[in-house]
Amino acid sequence: MYRNEVEGLDHMADSSAAPLKGARIWLSGSIPDGADPDSIRSFVARLSASIFRDGGSIIHGSHPTIWPILQQQAAEFQQAGGARDCLTMAISRHFSSEPDKYGVDTKAWRSCSLVYEVPAEGGDDKKAQNLERLRNWIAERCDAVVVVGGKGWDKNPGGAGIPAEFELARERALPCFLAASMGGAAEGYLRDRPEILRNLRNGLDPDENLALATALKGDVLADRIVEQLRRLPLVRGEPRSGSTFRILSLDGGGIKGTFTAAVLAEWERITKCKLTDHFDLIAGTSTGGILALGLGMGLSAQTMLEFYEQRGPTVFPMTSLGQRLLATLRSLIKPKFAQEILQSELATAFDSAPWKILRDARCRLVIPSCHARTGGVHIFRTNHHPALTAAADYLATDIALATAAAPTYFRAAEVDDRAYLDGGVWANNPSMAALVEALSRLRVPLNHVDILSVGTTSAPFAGRSTLKAGFAGWLWKGRIAELLMHAQAQGVLELSNDLAGHARMLRVDLSLVPGEVSLDNVNRIADLKDYGKQVAAKPDTVADVKARFLNGVPVEDWTRF
């Protein structure tokens, strides 16, 4: 049946052959007792086949009466050459942790779909709370909703899922379609609340929506909904195939980048996935910039971890009391460490990389820095936009030196006769810079972005001793710098969360007691490596990373200008 539906699949790259490219449709519903089950099955099969064929994807909350139909259509679509991310199955871990009880088979789902297990919450009413969290997660990720069937309206309208999901979509001003002609909660909801057909934002007036909802069934209804979906501007931005635009953001932090490198290396080991194959954009500041550039130039996360382990003590020679004292005295009149050593070590590391210059990067890169003479912000970017070609032929080594030239630690770095300082002075957490790049330069729809932000460990800011401090008190032990860096990182993280939405932002970090690690304490390299591997291997973290980022679905190739 399906191969006839997808005839002409080879032409899907053309927008006319893929009118729903990049659109994500939330299919909400189930097959209830007393409904018209054959019509609902036919409807779901036809709707999903048509959406897949037209370049769109479906997100479903994994109801056991619906998911086998979607899985069959997705499998047939993929056998005909379609993408694996045409279908996303979402479920709360409250249910997937008891697969036999709830009829869950995530192993079968993963054979032809992406699977995301929303973390479970505790509480007095766990089922209701976790269903609400699951619904919010789906609503944050879709461009339109189609509702069919559903249970519980006649006996418990307040607990019925269909109305809750329909209203959630309406609150977000998403285009909504109600298929009420085949029974279930959808039919009861419309019968008792006919006013819901107002303001569905689907391009149809209330009378047309009433006719659509009640007069058509099965294949005919599915075709009519898909026809209307094609007419709507569902994707606000550059339409792309794939379920999400994946961003990896790497914080600054000196030798604490050992933690970050260990996290990334552990994920590559566990998932057997190469990071640059699974992220559309990687942003990194300072030590995170070194890591981002290393990955972009073709080095593995494990190789970058070994660089920190083996060369860190050379870059930051602070292992003995005498070396620490000498560095402290030196820092009174000049930078604490010799930039030439860092430059030499970076050159050696990047010399082993398959690629050396920015234009050859394996993925898009965003590397914050700062103009040393003017204090203006600067971002080194790959040539992923016609206006971003100025740095295309710069050496990765030079850019790494520029983003890592932390004031008081290293002197300003010279790149193409211009002086640069560490990007951490304004973007130690580069997630906002990466998000703005995706939205403005690449025109990625906001609800299609997924950000994985990795820190370098953190510590609470202890400000009690500075409540009445003067100049000397704030300078003591770098308290003013500590506060500025802490507040900046927290501010960026909060703003990124607010803009992207909590469901699209995953932060991975570890809070330590103040003073346990520092930017240049190489005596803690082994500890940082161990911390990183422990954090990366946490079951919930691994599940999130595998579902949303390192999921075996490679990103689209990108255009270089």
Mean pLDDT: 88
Quaternary state of this entry equals single chain
How does the overall form come out from the CA principal axes?
elongated
Q: Which structural class best describes the helix and strand composition? A: alpha/beta
Strand content: 5-15%
Structure summary, number of beta strands? 14
Q: Which spans of ≥5 residues are poorly predicted at pLDDT below 50?
A: 1-15
Share of helix, binned: 40-55%
Main pleated-sheet profile: 8 strands, mixed
| Separation, N- and C-terminal Cα atoms | 42 Å
Q: What is the count of helical runs? A: 23
| Gyration radius, in Å | 26 Å
In short:
By secondary structure, the protein is of the alpha/beta class. It has helices at 2-5, 37-53, 67-79, 93-96, 99-102, 106-110, 126-139, 161-171, 185-192, 206-215, 218-231, 257-271, 287-296, 301-315, 321-330, 339-351, 396-403, 424-427, 431-441, 471-475, 479-500, 525-536, 539-548; strands spanning 24-30, 57-60, 87-92, 114-118, 144-149, 176-179, 245-250, 281-284, 364-371, 377-381, 413-415, 418-422, 449-454, 505-508. It is elongated and about 85 Å long.
